[in-house]
């Protein structure tokens, strides 16, 4: 019993030591570019952040043109060295990245290639948010906007960012599609069960652009994903048409 008690005390002490260390303030570095301010741990390789900054700057005007709106002129990007630091900063226990309004981004540091994609993915979220804010009537009512924005569909929100950050997943690698099954919009419109919108998002936007064009995509965003109002189509028919597009272009 005494041995077990000592083990419990030892484990508890180690736990509280780790927590105490994690709560200590860490030194941060800053790198500024034309449109972004990167804030990151002094343990993160500065050259890696410079490579990320070059990549996202090269996408700034492209995504602005694609989404027909003006992004924020200076966006703060906080790169966290680990999940605990990310959680402390954002209170977000599930995701690896998120935005705080149209001018602030947080994400967990990954490999260079993955960090580049995440940075562009989250930046795209800020551009979409800016698009919606810019379309609001004036004077701007933040409370009313927040209520309206809470209804923006998950599938469209994530699909746009997946597409613009080129997080393409080959449909041949998705078992459901190979078996002739495809998710409904309602299935995609949830963050439950692996967030399917990440897996299917690229081809969803590719399909919309191919069949309806970019102006209709922008209109769909402005209409908060209302397919009936924007494209004169039901959610069920939209899913079927998207699957046919995927079959013809990708499935072998």
Number of helices: 12
- Give the end-to-end Cα distance, rounded to a whole number of Å: 64 Å
Q: Would you count the extended β strands for me?
A: 5
Mean pLDDT: 91
Number of domains: 2
What is the helix content? Answer: 55-70%
Low-confidence stretches: 17-22
| CATH architecture descriptor of the largest domain | 3-Layer(aba) Sandwich
* Net shape: globular
Please name the fourth-level CATH homologous superfamily of the largest domain.
Collagenase ColT, N-terminal domain
- Class of the largest domain, according to the CATH hierarchy? Alpha Beta
Describe the structure.
This protein is 58% helix and 10% strand. By secondary structure, it is of the alpha/beta class. It folds into 2 domains: 27-150, Collagenase ColT, N-terminal domain (Glutaredoxin), CATH 3.40.30.160; 152-252, no CATH class. A 5-stranded mixed sheet has the order 1-2-3-5-4. The protein starts with a helix and ends with a helix. The model is unreliable at 17-22 (pLDDT under 50).
């Amino acid at each position: 019993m005494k041995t077990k008690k000592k083990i419990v005390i030892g484990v508890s002490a180690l736990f509280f030591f780790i927590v105490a260390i994690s709560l200590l303030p860490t030194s941060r570095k800053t790198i500024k570019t034309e449109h972004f301010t990167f804030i990151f741990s002094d343990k993160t390789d500065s050259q890696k952040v410079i490579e990320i900054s070059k990549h996202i700057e090269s996408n700034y005007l492209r995504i602005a043109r694609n989404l027909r709106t003006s992004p924020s002129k200076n966006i703060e990007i906080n790169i966290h060295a680990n999940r605990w630091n990310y959680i402390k900063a954002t209170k977000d226990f599930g995701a690896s990245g998120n935005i705080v309004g149209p001018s602030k981004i947080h994400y967990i540091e990954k490999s260079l290639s993955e960090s580049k994609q995440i940075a562009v993915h989250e930046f795209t979220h800020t551009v979409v948010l800016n698009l919606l804010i810019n379309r609001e009537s004036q004077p701007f009512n933040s409370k009313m906007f927040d209520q309206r924005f809470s209804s923006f569909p998950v599938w469209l929100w994530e699909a746009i960012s997946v597409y613009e950050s080129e997080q393409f997943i080959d449909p041949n690698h998705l078992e459901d599609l190979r078996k002739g099954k495809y998710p409904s919009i309602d299935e995609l419109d949830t963050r439950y069960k692996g967030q399917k919108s990440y897996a299917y998002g690229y081809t969803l936007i590719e399909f919309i652009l191919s069949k309806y064009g970019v102006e209709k995509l922008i209109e769909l965003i402005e209409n908060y994903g209302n397919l009936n109002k924007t494209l004169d189509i039901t959610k069920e028919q939209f899913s079927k048409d998207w699957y046919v597009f995927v079959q013809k272009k990708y499935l072998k």
